[in-house]
Amino acid sequence: MKLFARYNSILIIISFFGLLLIGSLFYRMLTYYLDQQIDHDLMEEVLEVKVYSEKGNFYRPHEFEDLVVQYKKIDKANPSSSYADTVFYNTIKHRKETARYLKTELELDGQPYQVLVIASKFERQEQIRNICLIILIPVLLLFALVLLVNRILLKQIWTPFEQLLRNITAFNVNHERPYEPVDMPVAEFRVLNKVLIELSGKVKSDYKEIKLFTENASHEMMTPLAVINSKLDNMLQSNVLGKEDGETLVELYKATSRLTKLNQSLLLLVKIDNNLLQDEELVNLKLLIGEKAVYFQELIFGRDISVEMSLADVSIPAS
After folding, report:
1. pLDDT of amino acid 174
2. Whose CA is closest to 179, among 151, 153, 201?
3. Structural domain spans, the chain
4. Is the pLDDT of residue 120 over 60?
5. Is residue 104 predicted with pLDDT exceeding 60?
6. What is the third-level CATH fold of 180-278?
7. Is the pLDDT of residue 85 over 80?
8. pLDDT of residue 241
9. Which residues of 268-299 are buried (b: 16+ CB within 10 A; e: fewer)?
10. Which residue among 150, 155, 173, 221 is the one 20 to 30 A from 260 at the CA level?
């Protein structure tokens, strides 16, 4: 995953859970204040019940108040009250609604009663939902706008960095063209660009020195080896050497020949590793293998080997 995509995914996840947490806390806080307000209204309704009982009447709320007051005669009234949530059937609207109730015990008209006051929460919960939507929709729009602006800004910031990566990938120590710097708007990227410029220059300089040393060392080694081979050839062709001396010279000649081939092989490997063999051509493998088969024909016949070849006409670019 790219850094830009990873950053955006982390930002979206954190923002989503942050909004979810804040929205949940906000909703719970509004619900808490709603319950506090309803509890206050229920207490006022209980006071209304007391006032009406002093006049010898039982308080009955208006049918459109979404309020229910129930009376139950008991043996003895205890001065206690309890609040809780419940669900009741609204006979006016013909539906079940969530509600808040207050249960208390009072002396009404000289008799102990348990009074249950139920207030509907439906309308106020609808108001809370509307308030949450009114707040949530602009927040979501703002969040989407922030993500869009963040994407555009980050893309503008990271575009030079991507160009920097392309320049690093295209940089080759074998080419004369130096590393191409990039105009970076961010201070940290400018430092990175500066370090890469200095590093590429040092790499090219060190590579040229190593290449020059390798070529010089190889040529310098070839000169004494050629002299040794020449001297050994002359000594082998002379008739003044004994049998043992001749065998010793033959061994020395073989050793110097191996050393010459080894030097040439090492030089070739250095050129291959550093991509210095640029003389590529199209090599036909069928013709090449056919030529090598003819070259080894005497060995094949001498060892009584039967060789059958079925070759496709394939060519590859190679040195």
Report:
1. 67
2. 201
3. 3-145, 180-278, 281-318
4. yes
5. yes
6. Helix Hairpins (1.10.287)
7. yes
8. 67
9. eeebeeeeeeeeeeeeeeeeeeeeeeeeeeee
10. 173
pLDDT (0 to 100) of residue 6: 74
User: CA-CA distance, 237 to 248, in Å (whole number)?
Assistant: 14
| Residue 180 pLDDT exceeds 80 | no
Q: Amino acid letter at 141?
A: L
* Residue pointed to by tokens 């190593």: 210
Q: What is the pLDDT of residue 106?
A: 80
pLDDT higher than threshold 60 for residue 64: no
Cα separation, 24 vs 30, whole angstroms? 10
For every residue of the chain, which 3-state class applies, written as one string? CCHHHHHHHHHHHHHHHHHHHHHHHHHHHHHHHHHHHHHHHHHHHHHHHHHHHHCCCCCCCCCCCCEEEEEEECCCCCCCEEEEEEEEEECCCCEEEEEEEEEEEEEECCEEEEEEEEEECHHHHHHHHHHHHHHHHHHHHHHHHHHHHHHHHHHHHHHHHHHHHHHHHHCCCCCCCCCCCCCCCCHHHHHHHHHHHHHHHHHHHHHHHHHHHHHHHHHHHHHHHHHHHHHHHHHHHCCCCCHHHHHHHHHHHHHHHHHHHHHHHHHHHHHHHCCCCCCCEEEEHHHHHHHHHHHCHHHHHHCCCCCCCCCCCCEEEEC
What pLDDT does 285 receive? 92
Question: What angle (nearest 5°) sits at the alpha carbon of residue 80, between those of residues 76 and 82?
Answer: 125
Average pLDDT, the chain: 79
In angstroms, the CA 257 to CA 253 distance is: 6
Structure tokens at 99: 């509600």
Tokens 């207030």 -> residue:
119
Of 58-67, 84-93, 95-104, least confident by mean pLDDT is: 58-67
